Amino acid sequence: MSSSTPAFRRLLVVIKQTAYEEYSQLRARGQAPKALRWKRLESRFHTHQQCVNDLVDILKRNNLQFSCVNRVELDRQHLADVDLVIAVGGDGTCLSAAHFLDHGTIPLLGINSDPMSEEHKIVKKKKTDERTSHGALCACTAANMKGKLPRILHGGGILSTRTRIQCIVKSTFSETRLVPALNDLLIANPSPAAVSRFRMGWLKQVKEPTPSLGSMTDPSYLPKSQYGTVTRFGGNLYDVDNSLNVWSSGLWVSTGTGSSAAMAAAGGMPMDVTSDNLQYLIREHMIENAVNKDEMKDQNNAMLKKGEKLHLRWNSQKGRIFIDGSHLYHNLELGDEILIDADAPPLALFTRDD
After folding, report:
1. So what's the pLDDT on residue 147?
2. H or E element: which one contains 298?
3. CB 40 within 8 A of CB 115
4. Who's near 160: CB < 8 A, 6+ residues apart?
5. Three-state DSSP class for residue 65
6. 43: which DSSP letter?
7. How far apart, in whole angstroms, are the C-alpha atoms of residue 81 and residue 153?
8. By three-state DSSP, how is residue 23 classified?
9. How many CA atoms lie within 13 A of 281 on its CB side?
10. What integer pLDDT is reported at residue 212 of this predicted model?
11. How many CB atoms lie within 10 A of CB 227?
């Protein structure tokens, strides 16, 4: 139920930088690819820009305070006193904006600025266009936002809660909590042709032992697991259960929101977008010569239920965790340990009502 009073005091509009703008910068330096179709890129740029102009007009007519920032320039300082973030572009822009909303207290509203038109579907006889965003994370599009957006801004719309992935990386001298992932993580060797080696298991919290006199400088008092001394994350003590050595092309981990994206293309299971669980899938698992081949195959793809914690010990010289695509990543080294669970603050996301 919407009201005449705006539901939000101050908005931040995050605007996609289009391919036309990026390649124009390269062209100015003489570095643009020769095969670019400039007219097509320019046409899509103008479509996107018209959407931005229309959005600004709507916000002004509704007497809302707002500021605009380019997606590539977005910083935490831009979120001061903001109570709604609007991402204009597509799913990629929504994902980029969501990474800064790591506390889950500011809702996100996505606008697909360049959806595939009905006319294009008829002329080209295509239902989808791979060059445009699917807009799965967007509440409205450039074509319908004039009718839908004012209602959302005055307290209407559907605000859903989406589970996100928490990932903590423990290196020799540091422990790093990565930004929450809304769609998925890909953990793999930086080279797609290289094998990704890691040990995978599930963390089980164990009771902290009471050290005896003089044992504080001797780690031998710690309990032992099957594979050595138990590990710590965030000061908590864990044992690793059901460990499995993996040689593969890497590991996908997705939320319900991301289960229809790369996870689905890799052969994963469908999930409800509002699920509290996560899903993991080992890519191209090398199990041909394994003695327990059937047992290992059963662990290739499964759900990580709410409360469960997946543990990886990275056994390759180099590795990389890709967060919601290729733009944002964290480098791994041999011996790094990784904790993955669904305990990241969920994202408040406005969704389509059709």
Report:
1. 94
2. helix 293-298
3. no
4. 273, 274, 348, 349, 350, 351
5. strand
6. H
7. 17
8. helix
9. 20
10. 59
11. 13
Averaged over 162-181, what is the pLDDT?
Answer: 97
Q: What one-character-per-residue DSSP string does 32-49 give?
A: S-TT--HHHHHHHHHHHH
Half-sphere exposure in the Cβ direction for 251 (13 Å, CA): 28
Q: How far apart (Å, rounded) are the C-alpha atoms in residues 52 and 141?
A: 11
Residue with tokens 């509002």: 274
How far is it, in rounded angstroms, from Cα 314 to Cα 331? Answer: 11
Q: Fill in the amino acid letter for 76.
A: R
The string of DSSP codes covering 186-244 is EEE-SSTTSPEEEEEEEEEE-PPP-PPTTGGG-GGGS-EETTEE-EEETTEEEEEEEEE
Q: Is the separation of the CB atoms in 131 and 107 below 8 Å?
A: no
Nearest residue to 234 via CA among 180, 320, 174: 174
Q: How far apart are CA 106 and CA 100, in angstroms?
A: 10
Q: Average pLDDT for residues 186-211, to the nearest whole number? A: 91
* SS3 assignment, position 17: coil
Identify whether the C-beta of residue 78 lies closer than 8 Å to the C-beta of residue 67.
yes
Q: Give pTM, 2 decimals.
A: 0.89
SS3 for 143-184 is CCHHHHHHHHHCCCCEEEEECCEEEEEECCCCEEECCCECCE
- Scanning the structure block, which residue is given the tokens 């977008």? 273
